[in-house]
């Protein structure tokens, strides 16, 4: 469902897409508000099954189910209990990270992991096992989940704890093991709602990787915007931004009066209809040049709002509309340490092909997470947005998939809408374990999606 559509309380047939607005499919939208309604929705979802869906920020087809049901989980949006001393929260799967921040920040707590948007649900964060700028230090979201309640295909509600096969299959399992109802999450203590940020420019990809390798351990959060239109000696030039939660004594006196205030800025929404062809090689090239040149060569200790550091695009509602009716593809992959040559080749190929991407980021991942289909593994991850209408894009990305797989890497399923099924097992060695558990837990395929059919999961 497009993000701007408000779901009805009664089942309705709607057209559903991911955030990239590609490959729509039609499904019945069901919004349970109680455990009883959730059980009834699963039992009555029909022969095409159903799939849980949060706020629709998966880019591809993970939360779509052509001809079946989609369970809108935003009705289960209660925060049930907060342990302000121990730093945990028990909440419904439909609670957004935005809602958690509003409630928890005044108490001195922050979510342990956040992606580039705070408009994702806790259930979605577990199902996609989201990662953020702090993976090299803190791992992915599921690592901070103590337990969750899972409604399985037989109508049973199970309490699932860490270090169990069902937990590890569900973390990153894209909603295919069942419907998460509640979760208990461990939180991150903070003294303020501001970030202390260091920014510097990197001249090229090798310079960027050297800076990240040498100094990333000093920072909790780290990310680099990378110019994928730069070529020659400037290939992979970047702006590197790193930081940590600002301590109270770093704030100016006037700000210390309300150090935990959470006031994210918000600009007007992108129009529903925009002219086609706004994002061309020329316009994106101009943007990239200006963005790189305006960045400081080196600046330390700048105080930024949480929203500016973590979620700058959230300030523009429906920013995905700028790509026009055709939408866009977000392509994200990871390759391991020791595979830097593969990363160089891929960045070089993207640069030579002149893919007009102005949202491209490079990060370093830390230790792998336990989820069988969790995306992160130690190494380098690159994510980029590409207009879906770019000629020859599908064949080009197929070639990149092959190179990623040959390097022992993988693509991120929460952002995928086009990976070939024959590459899945090569990228995710525990995919067969996942299939076996699903066959035992859900032999009728009650939980299913466009993604699961496409990838034979």
What's this entry about, in short?
The protein is of the alpha+beta class and 457 residues long. The chain is built from 13 helices and 19 strands.
Topology of helices and strands:
Elements: E1 12-16, E2 25-30, H1 35-43, E3 50-53, E4 69-72, E5 79-83, E6 88-92, H2 97-104, E7 109-110, H3 122-127, H4 135-138, E8 145-151, E9 157-161, H5 165-170, E10 179-186, E11 188-189, E12 194-202, H6 205-215, E13 221-226, E14 238-245, H7 281-294, E15 298-305, H8 306-310, E16 328-336, H9 340-353, E17 360-365, E18 379-387, H10 393-406, E19 410-411, H11 424-427, H12 431-441, H13 450-454
Parallel strand pairs: 2-4, 3-4
Antiparallel strand pairs: 1-2, 5-6, 6-10, 7-11, 8-9, 8-10, 12-14, 12-15, 13-14, 13-17, 16-18, 16-19, 17-18
């Amino acid at each position: 469902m497009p993000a701007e559509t408000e779901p009805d309380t009664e089942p309705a047939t709607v057209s559903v897409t991911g955030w990239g607005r590609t490959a729509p499919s039609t499904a019945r939208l069901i919004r349970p508000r109680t455990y009883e309604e959730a059980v009834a929705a699963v039992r009555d979802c029909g022969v095409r099954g159903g799939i849980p869906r949060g706020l629709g920020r998966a880019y591809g087809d993970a939360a779509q189910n052509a001809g079946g049901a989609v369970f809108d989980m935003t009705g289960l949006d209660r925060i049930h209990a907060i342990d302000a001393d121990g730093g945990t929260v028990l909440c419904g799967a439909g609670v957004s990270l935005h809602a958690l921040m509003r409630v928890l920040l005044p108490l001195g707590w922050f979510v342990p992991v956040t992606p580039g948007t705070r408009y994702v649900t806790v259930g979605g964060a577990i199902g996609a096992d989201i990662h953020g700028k702090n993976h090299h230090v803190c791992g992915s979201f599921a690592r901070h989940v103590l337990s969750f309640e899972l409604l399985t295909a037989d109508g049973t509600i199970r309490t699932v704890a860490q270090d169990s096969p069902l937990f590890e299959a569900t973390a990153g399992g894209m909603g295919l093991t069942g419907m998460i109802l509640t979760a208990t999450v461990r939180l991150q203590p903070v003294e303020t709602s501001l970030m202390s940020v260091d920014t510097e420019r990197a001249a090229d990809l090798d310079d960027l990787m050297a800076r990240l390798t040498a100094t990333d351990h000093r920072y909790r959060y780290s990310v680099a915007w990378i110019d994928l239109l730069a070529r020659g000696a400037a290939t992979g030039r970047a702006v590197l931004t790193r930081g940590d939660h600002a301590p109270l004594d770093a704030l100016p006196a006037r700000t210390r009066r309300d150090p935990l205030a959470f006031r994210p800025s918000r600009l007007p929404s992108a129009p529903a209809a925009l002219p086609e062809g706004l994002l061309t090689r020329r316009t994106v090239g101009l943007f990239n040049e200006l963005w790189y040149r305006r960045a400081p060569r080196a600046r330390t200790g700048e105080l930024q709002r949480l929203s500016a550091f973590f979620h700058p695009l959230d300030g523009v509602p429906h920013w995905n509309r700028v790509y026009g009716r055709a939408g866009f593809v977000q392509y994200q992959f990871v390759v391991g340490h020791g595979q830097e040559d593969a990363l160089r080749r891929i960045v070089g190929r993207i640069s030579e092909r002149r893919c007009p991407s102005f949202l491209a980021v490079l990060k370093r991942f830390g230790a792998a997470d336990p989820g069988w289909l969790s995306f992160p593994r130690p190494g380098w991850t690159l994510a980029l947005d590409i207009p879906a209408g770019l000629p020859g894009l599908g064949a080009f990305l197929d070639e990149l998939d092959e190179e990623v797989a040959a390097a022992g890497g993988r693509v991120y399923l929460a952002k995928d809408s086009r990976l070939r099924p024959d590459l899945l097992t090569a990228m995710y060695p525990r995919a067969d374990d996942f299939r076996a558990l699903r066959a035992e837990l859900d032999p009728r395929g009650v939980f299913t999606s466009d993604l699961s059919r496409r990838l034979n999961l």
